[in-house]
Amino acid sequence: DDDIFSSAFCENSEKLVNVHLFALAAKYYSLSNLGVCTPLEDVLEALKGDSEGAKGIKPDEFMNNKKSHEVQVMSELVDSIANYCGIKQVIDIGSGKGYLSSFLSMQYNLKVYGIDSSSSNTNGAHERNKKLKKHWRAYQKRGRENLKSQSLEQANDRQVESEINCETIHEELFNNASSLQNQDQVIIQDLVPSCGSIEMAISETNTETEADLVTGTQSHETKLSEDVLDVLNVLPGGAVEDFASSHNSGELCEEEKVQRKMTSLKTKARKSSESNLYFPLTSCITAETELNDIITDLEDCMMVGLHTCGDLAANTLRIFAAKPEIKAVCSVGCCYHLLSEQFESQEECHIQVWGFPMCQYLKDKGWCCGRNARMSACLALERVAAGQMLPTESLFYRAVLQVIIEEIYGVTKSDRHVGKTFSKSSSFIDYVRRSLKKLELDDSKLPDSCIMDYHEKYKHRMNELEAFNMLKVVLAPCIEVLILLDRLCYLKEQENIAWSGLVKLFDPVKSPRCYAVIALKNQSC
């Protein structure tokens, strides 16, 4: 196969001469085609115990479609792993605004610590919890309305059934009485009281049915209250008022007063010791981070990360491998372009721990991707295939800007970034001037006419640029494979890990970075 695919390039010039063969080679070496992934369904089946899946809460009620999809799928897997390992504590690395953390705590009653390096993200997580107050009020109200509706339907069904049974019995009695007309009058007299007895029995049955209905309704209401109480524990103190029964129940006997007082004291004690189940924390995580310094009540737990950026995904795996109290990990990385590479630069660097490579095999080979390749790995082939085309104009603007800063300012490398300037710009001239200011370059010596000359000079090559970027998109999955397999191989090299694998969690059109690195430690570790 390697020999066949190599003919996609000219042997002498090494230029691409067969685009079709190039695309086939890229597909052949993509993760979906290599057969190294474990299906999510198989993982969930293997982890499944006697526990039933959680019901009721839908994340799409307070998240966008993409985030809802990610959180719902990943939280189910995380809960399954936690149940399998017998743990209740989860550490969410790079938790952002707490979408995954809050859902894990609300839906699955897990105690979650969300750690993010940005204080604004942590504050945002607190603010989100405040907004959830309105959501849970609506959820609680809707639940009670559904319960009331179900109870009324059950009551109507039972009433109709009782009436039918009663009519059937009376009809049978009438028929029996008619057939006995020629028999002795004493027998008939014996039969009449039995009719009254049956009517009495029916009355008693109806009374018991009503009592059962009331008891069942109270049971449902109790269950609903418990569920909502568990859910609202996720919110910070003071975010939600006490919604315990506020109606005036009249005079209470002393025994009931004592019972209510004891219940109140127990509730306060529980809330003081465990005020909520989700704790947003601000801290920068590195491979050397001591979690005990951040989490005072650290216990057996698992680490998760939903789209952890750059080196954070690699550091998550290193911490997992090094700390005995962390029994499992589920990490979905992103932002490959921000990874640090050990063999990328020949300059002396004081970094001791690198984002890539992680495994000894690639380290021994001195493997390097480079920033351009890592940038390509971030592209979304499935989205392009689904019709979401590349932003050709913004890419063209960026390419021409590169020429301008090299030819006019002599700058070939900069630590500064242009960022999302295109969306804020009204024209190419505006884009160039905004970008030069971000790069701290003097734009006064560059007249508008000069800027437009560059635009006109390269405008005819826009199709060429689009074709080039499409080739990058086709190659993107192959580069992502290299990064993900490096992480998996690192885990395979560890002696204390019972199982590790790559699992496709998400729909790649909704969420392009869709692969999770998952591992479980040996039970003795």
Automatic annotation (TrEMBL):
Coiled coil: none annotated. InterPro entries: Methyltranfer_dom, METTL25, SAM-dependent_MTases_sf. It comes from the Eukaryota. It holds the Pfam family Methyltransf_32. Residues 66-178, 262-342 form the Methyltransferase domain. PANTHER family: CGI-41 METHYLTRANSFERASE (PTHR12496), METHYLTRANSFERASE-LIKE PROTEIN 25-RELATED (PTHR12496:SF9). This is MET25 protein. It comes from Hylia prasina (green hylia).
